[in-house]
Amino acid sequence: EETVDAIEATTQDVAEDAAEATDAVTEEAVDATDVVTEEAVDATDVVTEEAAEATDVVTEEAADPLSVAGFDAAKVLEMIDGSEANTVTKMALKAAIKKAQENPDQLKAILEQVKSAIGM
To answer: What pLDDT, in 10s, does the model give residues 81-98?
Structure first.
C-alpha cells in the first residue's frame, strides 16, 4: 500500500507541476499576444495617419488651380488678370496657359512660371 500511496503522491505532484507549467505557458502566450496586438494597433495607427495625410495633400492639390491635379485654365487666367504683373507678362502667361491646354506635358513647367510671375 505504501507503493500505491507513493505512486499517487508522485502522480499528484506531476499533475500539479504540469498544471503550473501550463499556467506559465498560457500566461506567457497571453503576454506575447498582448504585445503583438499592441504593435499591430500602433502600426495600423501609423498607416492610417499617413494615408490621411496623403489624402489631404491630394485634396489640396486637386483644389489648387495652379497644380497639375487641380488645373483650371479659366481660374488661372483670372488669377493672371488679377495679378500685379505687367501687361506684357500677363499676355505671355496667358499664351503659355493656352499652349499648356494643347500640350499637357508642359503644364507643370508653365504653372511654375505662372506661380513665380504672379508671386505665389
So the answer is: 999 999 999 999 999 999
Q: What is the C-alpha to C-alpha distance for residues 7 and 1, in angstroms, rounded to an integer? A: 10
Q: How many CA atoms lie within 13 A of 37 on its CB side?
A: 6
pTM (whole model) above 0.85: no
Sign of the alpha-carbon dihedral angle for 57, 109, 87, 75: negative
Per-residue CA distances from 98 to 2, 107, 110 (Å) = 106, 10, 10
- State the Cα–Cα distance between residues 74 and 50, nearest whole angstrom: 33
Separation of alpha carbons 50 and 48, rounded Å: 6
Burial (Cβ within 10 Å: 0-12, 13-18, ≥19) of residue 104: exposed
Q: How far apart are CA 8 and CA 30, in angstroms?
A: 32
Q: What average pLDDT does range 39-62 have in this prediction? A: 62
Residue found under cell 495607427: 45
